Amino acid sequence: MRDLRQTGNQTITEFIFLGFSNHPQLQGLFFLIFLVVYLVTLLGNLLILIAIRINPVLHTPMYYFLSNLSFLDICYTSTTVPIMLVNFFQEKKTITYESCLSQLFFLVTCAGTEGVLLAAMAYDRFIAICHPLSYPVLMNRRVCTYLAAASWLCGLVNSLMHTGLTATLTLCDSNEISHFLCDIPLLLKLACSDTSVNEFILYVSSATIGLSPCLFTAVSYMLIISAILKIQSAQGRKKTFSTCTSHLTVVLIFFGTAIFHYDQPSSGYSLDEDILISVLFCIVTPMLNPIIYGLRNKEVKGAIRKLSGECRSS
User: Fold this and answer.
1) How is 144-165 classified by DSSP, letter by letter?
2) Contact 112, 154 (CB under 8 A)
3) Domain boundaries, the chain
4) Under CATH, to which class is 12-313 assigned?
5) pLDDT tens profile 124-160
6) pTM of the prediction?
7) How many CB atoms lie within 10 A of CB 281?
8) DSSP run (H or E) holding 247
């Protein structure tokens, strides 16, 4: 069977990243910046995971989903940043064909899972505020487990489909990727074979895994805000809405950057603009999530302070 990576007598065994190539004199600075961002992301999400794990007060559906989000963000940022940090010291920034497909698989899995998971978290806040008396029944441990598992399953199935289709493409002689990561649209540009099926599945998955969770989350928050506005006291409205502000902020950042990342105009952006958008979506967002929850959520903040105090005393 002919190698589908092969065109003529050439078989593509690696890709060359062109991302950040416009600024060769800034490679050291970029390395330091992304190393700090990566370490902050790992530390912040690990702190939230440990704080939720050891604090019984946080053993609730909302924090169960948050722990899934923190673990997901660690996986998400670890998919792209380590190899990018290594490549800052390489004159030719390369990735093997197999590693590129692996990176694409984990990147698409994490992105799809996070969108659905944020929708599940919005549903949790909707039930808690709009149907508080039924909350213990509607959001019991089994339901939470099913919702989290469904989020991971949606991301996994979506990614398996895209990765399998991408692996069947016949690639042209060029192996240069105008980016710092492997993603579906970038590899479709290198294909010589028909990509109509890949593009159709990409549009379908964008609607089901991307747009649907976004719309579901938006509708949930419209109903939540409507319910909050019906609360008589201003103090009650403020207290109730405060339980949603962290999640709402994370939702706006994730879906906002996702729209710019995947729904670019046909003319596209410049290389620097395209990379900036991807950095915000794939690297900065996972770092911001634990910071937002740590700063805006009193229970998480208290648990982290308690954990820090125990570490210092020991």
Assistant:
1) HHHHHHHHHHHHHHHHHHHHHH
2) yes
3) 12-313
4) mainly alpha
5) 999 999 999 999 999 999 999 999 999 999 999 999 9
6) 0.88
7) 21
8) helix 234-262
